[in-house]
């Protein structure tokens, strides 16, 4: 049975089946919030979950400085990103994003028959918003994805440049702030979204809160966008257990702040070590570092029981390593040092 032609042509997201003790490939956090069993709680597993996610929206709203009604919650922010494409982008309309950026943007564009156009990054992987503007003039996109800090490179777009861009275009601008909690300087436009007709801002519990297993993300936008997204969202999309864990995580917001500030200082240590080894590294505001090295690095590290993310195509020889705990970072730094000494 043949699927739709755009689906037959789809290059889907591949989850790497490889295993290693030191897992620094997927930007996951540590289990710092739920490292002890939670108090005995009986869940009403026979009932559908709270579709309005009242408790979760309330606690996110307080921490993020918005109203509960300004929020939509998804089964991972991935679900929300697709929901946005599904709701706003017709077949053959254009979606723009920088390259490289989060690989799922392209997948969602393809699934929904949109034309995905990549705006190249600068040589140092910084994101040139003037170039984004000129592509926007040329291609008249329906939607633009901006990831800041950007995955996989870690580059952050200044807040004034995002707002300037939003006001310069009719396109729907989706700002993905999956890593904002790790940025040295908070350049979030989350609270700003309700003031613009064409801005959506998405966040996730998968990275800074260490809740990747629960699959929870949230987004905010003005009332009319919220109405559309809520009408397209599948009912009961976030299960009861995940809602519970997300509420408990938000109650421990201060632990998240401690964790992210520790990651920031560990990031500096790993960054400086790689620089000392003469490796080309790029400044990062995420919980990861993007760098360039010899092509067989991935395999060599895997033999040392360390897994990082390797890129292919035009990014062959580029890697992204997640900042882990001290033990993991030290193992990675030692392995890199040994590899560099060998090739010298
Ligand atoms: C990890 C990630 C997400 C989404 O993660 P979910 O687990 O689906 O919430 C979204 N955007 C970027 C850039 C990411 O790296």
Any chance you could write out the topology, listing elements then pairs?
Blueprint: H1 5-8, E1 22-23, H2 54-64, E2 71-75, H3 77-88, E3 94-99, H4 104-111, E4 115-120, H5 129-139, E5 143-147, H6 159-168, E6 172-176, E7 199-204, E8 216-220, H7 223-232, H8 240-251, H9 253-276, E9 280-282, E10 288-292, H10 297-303, E11 306-307, E12 309-310, E13 318-322, H11 326-343
Parallel strand pairs: 1-11, 3-4, 3-5, 5-6, 6-7
Antiparallel strand pairs: 2-8, 7-8, 9-10, 10-13, 12-13
Helix pairs in contact: 2-8, 3-4, 9-11
The structure holds pyridoxal-5'-phosphate.
Pyridoxal-5'-phosphate binds next to α3.
Let me know the largest β-sheet.
7 strands, mixed
Q: Which H/E pattern describes the elements? A: HEHEHEHEHEHEEEHHHEEHEEEH
| Broad shape | globular
**Number of E strands:** 13
């Amino acid at each position: 049975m043949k699927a739709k032609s755009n689906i037959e042509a789809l290059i889907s997201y591949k989850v790497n089946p490889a295993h290693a003790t030191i897992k620094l490939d997927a930007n996951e956090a540590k289990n710092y919030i739920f490292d002890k069993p939670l108090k005995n709680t009986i869940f009403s597993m026979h009932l559908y979950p709270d579709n309005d996610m009242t408790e979760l929206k309330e606690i996110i709203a307080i921490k993020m400085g918005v109203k509960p009604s300004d929020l939509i919650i998804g089964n991972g922010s991935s679900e929300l990103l697709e929901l946005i494409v599904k709701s706003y982008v017709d077949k053959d309309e254009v979606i723009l994003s920088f390259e490289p950026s989060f690989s799922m943007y392209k997948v969602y564009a393809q699934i929904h028959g949109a034309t995905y156009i990549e705006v190249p990054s600068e040589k140092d992987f910084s994101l040139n918003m003037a170039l984004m503007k000129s592509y926007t003039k040329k291609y008249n996109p329906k939607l633009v994805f901006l990831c800041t800090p950007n995955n996989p490179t870690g580059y952050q777009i200044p807040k004034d440049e995002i707002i300037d861009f939003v006001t310069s275009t009719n396109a729907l601008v989706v700002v993905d702030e999956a890593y904002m909690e790790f940025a040295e300087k908070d350049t979030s436009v989350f609270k700003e979204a309700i003031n613009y007709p064409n801005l959506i801002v998405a966040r996730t519990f998968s990275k800074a809160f260490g809740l990747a297993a629960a699959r929870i993300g949230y987004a905010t936008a003005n009332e009319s966008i919220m109405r559309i997204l809520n009408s397209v969202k599948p009912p009961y999309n976030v299960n009861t257990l995940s809602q519970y864990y997300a509420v408990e995580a938000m109650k421990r917001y201060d632990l998240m702040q401690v964790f992210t500030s520790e990651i920031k200082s560990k990031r500096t240590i790993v960054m400086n070590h790689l620089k000392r080894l003469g490796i080309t590294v790029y400044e990062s505001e995420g919980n990861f570092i993007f760098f360039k090295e010899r092509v067989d690095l991935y395999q060599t590290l895997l033999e040392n029981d360390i897994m990082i993310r390797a890129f292919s195509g035009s990014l062959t020889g580029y890697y992204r390593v997640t900042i882990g705990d001290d033990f993991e970072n030290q193992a990675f730094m030692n392995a890199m040092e040994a590899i560099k000494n060998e090739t010298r």
